[in-house]
Write a structure and sequence with these properties.
The structure is a homodimer. By secondary structure, chain A is α/β, with parallel strands linked by helices. Chain A contains 15 helices and 15 strands. Chain A has 2 domains: about 5-235 and about 440-475, Aldehyde Dehydrogenase, Chain A, domain 1, CATH 3.40.605.10; about 245-420, Aldehyde Dehydrogenase, Chain A, domain 2, CATH 3.40.309. Helices cover about 45% and strands about 15% of the residues of chain A. In chain A, the strands form 3 sheets. A 7-stranded mixed beta sheet of chain A has the order 10-11-12-9-8-13-14, with helices on both faces. Chain A has a 5-stranded parallel beta sheet with strand order 5-4-3-6-7, with helices on both faces. The longest helix of chain A is centred in the N-terminal third of the chain and has 23 residues, at about 65-90. The two termini of chain A are about 40 Å apart. At the A-B interface, helix 4, strand 1, strand 2, helix 14 and strand 14 of A face helix 4, strand 1, strand 2, helix 14 and strand 14 of B.
Chain lengths: ~475, ~475
Amino acid sequence: MNLTDPTFDNSPEQIDATVAAAAAAADTYAAADAATRAALLRGLADALEAARDSLVPLADRESHLGPARLNGELDRTAFQLRGFATRVEAGDAFAHVDDPAVAGGPPAGHPALLRVRQPLGPVAMFAASNFPFAFSVLGGDTASALAAGCPVVVKGHPAHPELTRATAELAAGVVKAQGLPAGVFGLVEGAAVAVGVHLVQHPAIAAVAFTGSFRGGAALQAVANARPRPIPFFGELGSINPVIARPAVLAAQGPALATTLAGSITLGCGQFCTSPGVIVLPDDPASDSFVDALAAALSDARPHAMLTPGMRANFDAGVAGWAATPGVPWRVAPTDGGDAPTPALAVTDAATFIATPALHDEVFGPAALVVRTTSVDEAVAVLRAIGGSLTVTLWGAETDDAASRALVRAAMQTAGRVLFGGVPTGVAVTAGQQHGGPWPSSTRAETTSVGWAAMDRFLRPVALQDAPAWLQRLGGRPC
Amino acid sequence: MNLTDPTFDNSPEQIDATVAAAAAAADTYAAADAATRAALLRGLADALEAARDSLVPLADRESHLGPARLNGELDRTAFQLRGFATRVEAGDAFAHVDDPAVAGGPPAGHPALLRVRQPLGPVAMFAASNFPFAFSVLGGDTASALAAGCPVVVKGHPAHPELTRATAELAAGVVKAQGLPAGVFGLVEGAAVAVGVHLVQHPAIAAVAFTGSFRGGAALQAVANARPRPIPFFGELGSINPVIARPAVLAAQGPALATTLAGSITLGCGQFCTSPGVIVLPDDPASDSFVDALAAALSDARPHAMLTPGMRANFDAGVAGWAATPGVPWRVAPTDGGDAPTPALAVTDAATFIATPALHDEVFGPAALVVRTTSVDEAVAVLRAIGGSLTVTLWGAETDDAASRALVRAAMQTAGRVLFGGVPTGVAVTAGQQHGGPWPSSTRAETTSVGWAAMDRFLRPVALQDAPAWLQRLGGRPC
C-alpha cells in the first residue's frame, strides 16, 4: 500500500457509504442487550488474540515498537475489550435513577421520573499512531463506544495502514459471525486531512473520539463545533506531564529515581501522551546530583526509531526550538542518531519557563526540560503556567505539611491524574482511572478515554416522566 | 435605573474586578466542607424567603408575571437551594471511587487509584428573563455551582435589573455574614452584548451556564470555544417541545386534553422553555374535534404582557413567519391584543413541516403549530426533522405495541425528557430530572440544568495514584 497514492484515501462517497451503514445499524445496536454487546466485545478480544502471530509482526514492521511492547499492548487491548464486556454485564450501560412520584404540588411534589441513558449514535473514532493496538482500531474508544451501544466508524491512522486493515477485517468478521448489522463497525482510510474532515462533518456522526496531536485535534474540534448540529469532540491532545520533586526525596533516592525517570522519558522513544516532559526541581545540591545522574542515564539510552518521518521532523523542530531559546542550555544535547533520535535534556529556571509560552508545548519524543525552582510557590507558578496536563507527578509529598498541600492543590487543578511517586507512563485500565485533563491536554476534561468511565462519554441522560408499566418493565429501553 | 443609559453597563475594568474577586475566592471556597456550603445555600434560601414581601412586588413590576406565579417561583428557588444543601450534606460533591491496588503486572495489576472530583473554578452564570427567581440570580445554576464548590459571577438579565440588584445584595450579605470571601458571589450588569462577551472571555472564568435564546446562546458559546483556553458552555437554548397524540387518546379524552394543552401553551404568556410549540396529530375526525376544542380554548385565553418589548417583537415576527409560509393556515389568527399578544394556532401537514426548516424554530410566546400526520412513520419523521428538543410528550403510548415503541424510541433520540401524558410545562426539581436535550435545545445534552444532577456540570474527575495516607484521610481533598 502506498500512502502517497491518492487512491489510499477514501472518497467522500466511500465515507458516506460507511457512515450510512453505521447509521442504519444504530437503532438495532442501541437496542442490543448486555449479553449481545458483551459477546461482541469478548469475540473481538478472542479474535485479536487468535491473530496475535500475524498481527504483532505486522505492527512491528509498521511501528518499530518491538514485539515485547506490542505483545503487551495486544494483551492490554484484549483485557480492555473484556473489561468493558464485564462492565456491560454488570449493568453499567443500563444504570438508571428511579425517582418515584411524590404526592402534592410543586416544588416538593413531582411526577415519577425514570432517568435512563441513551446511546448517542455512530461514533467517529480517530486512531492514534503511537498505540497501534490499544488506541487504534479495537482500542479503548472503540471498546467503550460499543459497550455504550454506539456503532463505531474508525478513521485508521496512516502510520500503520496494513495493521489497520487486518484488524478491521477481523472486527468485521466477528460482527458478521455474531449476526449483527455490518454497520456496527466500519473503517475509513486516508492520509489526507479532507478524509477526517468529511467524516466529522457527516450529519449521521453523533460524536468524535480522537487521540493525537494538539494541532490535529484542535482543527478537527473546530470542524465538529462548526457543524450545523455541533457534536461532542472527545480529544486527547498534547501533554507535558510535569514531575515535581521536593528536596528530601532527591537526597534520599536520587540515583534510583534518575534511572526510573530516564526510562520513562525514553520509553517507546518518548512517544507516550504521558511521557514526562518537564522536571521541576529545587535549586539545591541533591538536585544537581540528580540532574547529573539523569543526564548520564539519558546519554546511555538508545531509543528505537520514531513512528513516522513526520513525527521525527516534529521532534527535531521541538528540540531546535529549545536550543534557540535564550536561558535554556543543553545538559544532554541531541546528536545525529541516524534512524533514531538521541535523548535530549535541557535546563532552565522558573522565571524563564514561565515567561516563555513556547516551552509549555509538548515536544513528542525522548526529551525533557529541567526547571529549577527556589520555592514551593515557584513550583506552583510553573504548574499554573502549564495550565493543563494529563498528569502531574509529585515526588516527596508523603508528609502532610503546607508545602505538600499547596503542591497537591495545584496539581489537582492542572491535571486529570496526580501520581505520588513513580512515573506517569503506564495508564491502568480500571474503574478509578482518569485519562483526560484541562486544556490543552484534552478537550473534555470531565471525561476519560481510559478506564471504565470512558463509556459514559457516549451516553446521554433521558428522563421518562410517568413511564407506562410496559416501558418500566423494559428498564426504559423500548427495544 | 435606565437601561439605555450606558452607565448601566459594567465597564471592562468593573467586570475584571468582579471576576478577580471570584478567582481569589476559588481555592478557599473549593476547600469549604459540606457543612459550610450547605449553610451558605440554606442561608440564601432563608434570606430569599425573608425578603419575599419586597422582592415579589419588585419582580411583578419588572416581569408582569403576577404575584401568584412569582410567589410559587420564589418557593421553588428556595426549595432548590435547600435541596442542593441536602445533596451536599449527603456527600454528592465529595463522592469518590476507591480503586485499591491490584498486585501483578499490567494489564490486570495496577496501582491504587482514588478518583475524586475537583470544582472547575469561577462560573459565569447568565440569568434568564423568564424566571426572575428560579433561573436568575439565585436560581438553579447558581445553587448547583455553589454546591459544587465554585464561586459564581452572575450576569444579571436586564429585563429585571432592580430585582437582580436587590437579590444580589441579599446574596452578598449572606456570604459576608457567614464569613466567606466576598468573591464567592459576584454580579455583572449590562444590556450590551460586549458585557457578556468580556465576561466569557475572562481567563479566570472556568465555565459558563446560560439560559436564554438560541441566538444569544450560540453566539456566546462561539466566544467560549474561541478562547485561548476554551471552557465548557452549558447553554439551555430554544426548544419546540412536540406533543404527539395517538388516535385512541383523542377519541377518549379530547376535550379535557384540549383545555389542558391550551393552558400549557398560554401559561406565563407562553414564555417557558418547555412550552409546547408543535402538536402532532393523526389525520382523523377525533383530531378535527380536538383542534376545534383547542382553538376555542386558545381564543378564550387572555395572556398577560410579555416580559420585554424585544420578546414581543420576536413573537410577532415568529407568527408573521408562519403566516408567510404557504400551506400553514391559521386556526386562531393572532390579533392586536394591545399590551399583550393573543394566542395563535396554525395547522400544517407533515410534508410541509418537514420540508420547511423555518417551522422547526421556536416561536417564544403563546403560539402552537398543529402538524397532521397520516402514519406513525410520518410522526417519527417529524421528530427526526426537529432533531433536538428539551421535551417530547406522548399521549396514548400506554399500550405496548410496535407504534408505541417506535414513537418512544424516536422521542428518546430527540429529547432529554419524554412525558407520557400531561403537558411539558412544569419541570420538577429532583434527582430523576433531565432538563437538556440534543442540539439546538441545549449545548451539552449530557448535562441537566434542573435537578440534583445539575451539580455534576461543575466538577471534573481527578485520579490520585498511590495517594499518601494523609490525603486519603482527607478524602482526596488537600484543603
